[in-house]
Specification:
Strand order of the largest sheet: 4-3-5-6
Number of domains: 2
Number of strands: 6
Shape: elongated
Number of helices: 5
Largest sheet: 4 strands, mixed
Strand content: 15-25%
Radius of gyration: 20 Å
């Protein structure tokens, strides 16, 4: 089966946040092992494009949740709590990671100072 059709099957599998059972059953019964691997790669990529992972130190308050939601309209936002992140946050979307925290700022500053010495 060609990759374009496999990609479309992956997109059809998860529509509106729900698994389409008919597509899932078709994939499990009809695709070869090789095509199933390609399908899973496309499926993971498709799911990641619709999700945003936000890592913060504490549970998000209403204001934080609203502001993140405004930035990523129509995306499924998932918060992760990690006290190690300290002040700031890390946002993962598509293939991007944006880390805005004090720890990274300090580490970059120290690295820049070492480079200039």
């Amino acid at each position: 089966m060609n990759k374009g059709i496999i990609k479309k099957l992956a997109q059809m599998t998860v529509e509106n946040g729900q698994v389409n059972e008919a597509v899932r059953n078709f994939v499990l019964k009809k695709l070869s092992k090789k095509d199933t691997k390609v399908y899973l790669l496309y499926l993971i990529s498709h799911i990641r494009k619709n999700e945003v992972y936000v890592t913060i130190a504490n549970d998000p308050d209403k204001n934080t949740h609203e502001n993140i939601s405004k930035l990523f309209k129509s995306k499924n936002i998932k918060f992760k709590i990690d006290p190690k992140i300290g002040a700031g946050l890390k946002v993962e979307y598509d293939d991007n990671i944006v880390s805005l925290n004090v720890r990274n700022l300090i580490e970059r500053t120290i690295s820049d100072i070492k480079d200039t010495l």
